[in-house]
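User: Show me a protein chain along with its predicted structure.
Assistant: Here is one chain, sequence first, then structure tokens.
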Amino acid sequence: MLENGYHGEQQERRRPTAVTVKDFIILVNVVCNRNTKSQGFLAGVFNKLEENKMLVDLVTTSEGNVSLAMQSSDGTENQQRRLKGDLEEFGKVSISENMSIVTVVGHKMRNMVGISSEILSALASAKINIYLVSQGASEINVSLVVRAEDAILAMNVIHAKVLKIPTHWEQENNFIKGPWLY
């Protein structure tokens, strides 16, 4: 049981430590055209990122596509257009703006069976769409890209349902008891 995220006599499940949100993110999806081999496709995409001096926060790949979450700012609109044009040589490119990265962090998440499912189920129950999921080999974080307008709700839902931290309004209501409410 210990290796699956449980500890103690009551076999309580360990919990992640924190949730972070990073705003001003764009999501770039590139679907490979049939003329490019997968190795050449990925190498070409990353070479174009280097040429355009674009820093990438998250990457997910498969044989035929790559998704990249990267910081967006007011001064990089021309860079984004140029990058899109450069990447179109490899396939179809789409860019989604106004996104955020929500990351669940904790060293106790390592070897914790079902934690990703718990996070994704919590967000699904709040009707939050997830555009990208990434987990590093260290297994100490799970990062998700969501619409910027859903980021705070996602953080609150994860706090309440995954970290088991009472929501802000529940904490406030615990302190406002007394005859003055009548």
